[in-house]
Amino acid sequence: MPDNRPAHTPTMIVDAELCAAGITAQIVRFDIPEPTDTRHAVGAGYHVNMCLTPRPLESRGGYRERWGPHRFERLGDIFVIPPGESLYIRGGSGRQASLVCTIDASLVHDLLGRDLPWDDAHLAAALDIGSAHVRALLFRITAEVRHPGLASQRMLELLGSELAIELGRYGLEVSERPMTGGLSGWRLRLIEERLASDLAAPSLKDLADLCGLSVRQLTRGFRVSRACSIGDYIEQRRMEAAKRLLMEGESVKTIAFAMGFASPSSFTFAFRRAVGASPSTFRQRQGRALASMPSVAA
């Protein structure tokens, strides 16, 4: 049967799916042939997306109905769309794989004891979730979806409940942030530029000097702005860069020394802890997944 889709239509393939009470988890692959400007509408549940391959650097998200047509914020490796909202995603072509979870809103709100207020601050914070606890749970869910074991649905149900709690805690942390005390936009941009320009991890003193602050002011202000520690954020960004280099064919040894690790084995340990797989396993797994994507005609 002929394929009548337009030549540049993005495609999505569900590789694996696991469902349990309150949560559906899928491993999906996307083929996005050119930069996009798409609307992602969410129904009654929370949509959680964790990129398993590097997310394109140009990817931005915005809530057009809330923010207007011109405001777009950076999409992190993990983002959440709350119930009833429409996220517009702009930019970022290529092939990528993600874990996509849909969690019943009632599960989050019942565990939390109340609804979360999805105001401007919460929406912005949900576009780049740096929580190490959320990340660890999503990696466990990914492993369970890929290789279901004994009582896999029950396991997913338990992990889904934990994830709902962590999302609720993250939302409460945003609610309890002081109205002032965060880093200014230009200081956050300086930190981003430093992390993008050099793979080696900067010291907190280096970043504090860059921003004209004390280390204490930097760490406190960063947590207010990003709802995670600056150390976790630096590690997250470094591992994003490592994933991109692995997919580009760089050797583990080259990446390890470029990132300032003492040896390839120490880099492998850090990568496995952050990503849930060794660098070689990550490259092989994602290479196979992306190679099997259907090609889109030019």
TrEMBL record:
One of its GO terms (molecular function) is sequence-specific DNA binding. Residues 185-285 form the HTH araC/xylS-type domain. The keyword tRNA processing does not apply. SUPFAM superfamilies: Homeodomain-like. Keywords: DNA-binding, Transcription, Transcription regulation. The keyword Transcription applies. This is AraC family transcriptional regulator.
